[in-house]
Amino acid sequence: xxxxxxxxxxxxxxxxxxxxxxxxxxQATAHTPINTKxxxxxxxxxxxxxxxxxxxxxxxxxSSLAGNRLNTxxxxxxxxxxxxxxxxxxxxxxxxxxSLLQYTTNTEVGNIYGNMANSGSGTQLQENHLANPNSNxxxxxxxxxxxxxxYFMADMPWDSYNVDRVDFQRGPASFLFGNGSPAGIINAxxxxxxxxxxxxxxxxYSTFNSVRTxxxxxxxxxxxxxxLRLNALRSRENFQQDxxxxxxxxxxxxxxxxxxxxxxxxxxxxxxxxxETGAIRSNRPRALTPGDALTPWFLTGxxxxxxxxxxxxxxxxxxxxxxxxxxxADTNIASIGVDGRGEQVKNYNxxxxxxxxxxxxxxxPWLGGQFAAGYFGNVMGITDNTGxxxxxxxxxxxxxxxxxxNGLIDKGIGGIPFSRMSSxxxxxxxxxxxxxPGAKFGLTRNLTLTDPSIYDxxxxxxxxxNKREWQNFRRxxxxxxxxxxxxxxxxxLVYDRQHYDNGSFSMMSDKGQQLYVDxxxxxxxxxxNPNFGRPFIADGTGNNVSSNASDRRAVRxxxxxxxxxxxxxxxxxxxxxxxxTLTGLFVKEQKKSEYRQWQRWATDQAYAQExxxxxxxxxxxxxxxxxxxxxxxxxxxxxxxxxxxSAAGAKIxxxxxxxxxxxxxxxxxxxxxxxxxNPAAPWENPLYPVGHKFRISTQSENPANYRxxxxxxxxxxxxxxxxxxxxxxxxxxxxxxxxxxxxNWQGTFYRxxxxxxxxxxxxxxxxxxxxxxxxxxxNQVNLDPSVFRLADSAxxxxxxx
Length: 801
Prior knowledge:
Elements: H1 7-21, E1 63-64, E2 72-73, E3 80-85, H2 86-92, H3 97-100, E4 107-109, E5 137-139, E6 146-149, E7 152-153, E8 163-170, E9 184-190, E10 198-206, E11 210-222, E12 226-238, E13 245-257, E14 268-283, E15 291-293, E16 305-306, E17 312-313, H4 331-335, E18 367-368, E19 379-384, E20 391-393, E21 423-424, H5 427-433, E22 467-484, E23 489-506, E24 514-517, E25 535-538, E26 544-564, H6 572-577, E27 579-599, E28 601-603, H7 605-611, E29 629-634, E30 665-673, E31 682-684, E32 696-698, E33 706-713, E34 716-718, E35 728-749, E36 754-769, E37 795-800
Parallel strand pairs: 6-9, 15-24, 19-29
Antiparallel strand pairs: 1-2, 3-8, 4-5, 6-7, 8-9, 10-11, 11-12, 12-13, 13-14, 14-22, 16-17, 18-21, 19-20, 22-23, 23-26, 24-25, 25-29, 26-27, 27-35, 28-34, 30-33, 31-32, 35-36, 36-37
């Protein structure tokens, strides 16, 4: 079924069927009230391999499958197990891990509803679970728990619309999952069909115009033999941060067949089947406030630097305002690229061409191009928050064909000032530059915005509509259970199949969600920067898109033998020996995964050859960052000038429009030699003062001798317009297969006063990795199935537990 479920039609169909059964059978919930006397028609004989919500009373569950894969009293299971019932899920409004785990024992969950940040302990906090928030869990303070659905490992997120109960087994569950997480498992038990005509429709309306609709109906097709249950979900959740949202649409069905000819005497046969399909689309809110690469622009004072010997030198240049980088007090500082003299900020601790032992007088410790991935000669797509037309420009000139005095290409043109899209550097780096205590040990954390009058992070998503996540999933399960001797002997055979894929893209990575300010007054081509002082967002890693897809299939066979010595015996020996259950388990599980990463946009090969290649025809790989389109969105008006003594009250907006690069020309520097001058002839470089070692140069370093700034045609590759394979930078396949054999004995002695359990399990694991595929001359991944495939042989290991 296609992931985009037509829920309206499903609800109409289900409602019509529900009315056809008679409103007398319709209930507000799908459960019979506890104090209602059951008729013979209502009585269901459950196999020992299943539990249902009807066994629970309020918040209390009596049994679970989490101990030995059989319906066992919780009091007789020797591990830390707790159960959240359907009634509790309903009362607290929990629909997923994200909204449930904050209420349960020894569990944590991240994201906006959670009780755990899980944002890292480094200098820069980050958010890692926007694509699948259900997986952002921690149990017993250890690690993320394994997610299971009906005790099969699952990647897909569960939702309460078709879940009767959630079992938490905290800690290792060796008998169930020998290779599982030491934190334990979180199992969602799905709703099953039963032999009662029941149904319900639920509509919830909440803050920010969020709407959630669920539908649940059960049809008895053949009395006491065949029934069908359908569940549907349509949810649109909006958040305080505009325009954040999550849309969730799902459909699930369950079939139950207990053929009368096979259910006679002491034998009982149950055939169950269920399926689920769904799709989630979202632009989820961020729990962290944006990084602050803006407010230090308004700082004044002095900053210390280092000389070439490593000694701290106070910065007392009277023509320098310390780390006031606005370019207002000293227009030379920010007027020609980063530091105005062709010296990169990274050269703060050397002479920069000045006499040994002295500090570079043009050093600006707060300046830098410190975006998450850095901007290094990419074509920049520049627009504003209203989605105006994009300007394509290569802000950092390419000198790929620059020559030396000997006339040979040396990839440099010394007369071109260093020019890179820059702003304030992140606090981690500035703290090292000015020798803040502990900085060199990584003990300083990057700044984040704290004043909503500058940017209202409570109500504005900094990405605007330029971030998306998606999840698609489907699952099918077939279960055959057979018992004999009135339930003392039985077996179960289950086949489970799942597909799940998710992905996300964002203009900004987790670490790159920063608010910057443009410090450049004069562009590299000598023109005035019209965006000087304007806040902006930009992050090169945002051009990357990643996706994960997994296919799981599993076969599980379970058999048991039970004997109760006390049954039919009135003497003490029978009571002492009690009841004993021997359970055997065989599981064969396989998971195949594919991970892909691709760029959203890149320049065509013609542009790469013209402006990036030293020699025409030299391959420029698709993953060369210089071919990436680097998005920059300016937000609001300039903060430069006397009107702003601080950033407070700036009320910077977030983007209103989805960024898409447009235009068919790029303004770029053509480094092709275009002069009759002798490259070795002398020339004075005006970028450097008299006495500087780089002042005396040659005509080979004079930009006037090259073709210079031009508008050149460009065609863009766009992943959303059919170029996804051509833009793929990385792809891997993986596969593992587990064969598990387990044996479990449980004994209850003297009226269950003493319960003992012993289990043994052996897991044989086989893993396959991607067979290394070839790449073409442009370093594009070869996705041909004959090359992009799994290795023929697998590595194996055996685990006993």
